[in-house]
Amino acid sequence: MSLTKRLMEEWQHKVAVGKGIAIDAGVLAVCEIHEIVYDGGVEIERAYMLGNARFTAGKLNEVFADRRDLTDAIKKAYEENCGDGCWICQKNAAS
Fold it and tell me: Which of 27, 32, 36, 61 is the most exposed place for a label (fewest CB within 10 A)?
């Protein structure tokens, strides 16, 4: 496997962990029916605080090199999933 591919996979894993943190913090929500992730209505700083607490506790040290790496992954996860709601539910409601 090339170094570039390995680094891309590592970054994708970090963003997935960041997404989980954002969901746990309520920053992102998950549709119970369709499993679509969307904006949970909570400020992103809450996810940063939760991630920071987990990093301090040593729970994320194997994934993230430092706190900046962690917050960058949380921000990217939020940006990729910050829709207004489950687009499938919204589409069905409009029909």
Answer: 32
pLDDT value at 95 more than 80: no
- The pTM of this model reads 0.92
Sign of CA dihedral 43, 46, 52, 55: negative
29, containing H or E segment: strand 28-30
Which residue type, as a one-letter code, is found at position 73?
A
From the number of C-beta atoms within 10 Å of its C-beta (0-12, 13-18, 19+), residue 15 rates as buried
In 3D space, the residue among 29, 5, 6 whose CA is nearest the CA of residue 77 turns out to be 29
User: Hey, what's the torsion of the CAs at 12, 71, 65, 25, to 10 degrees?
Assistant: -80
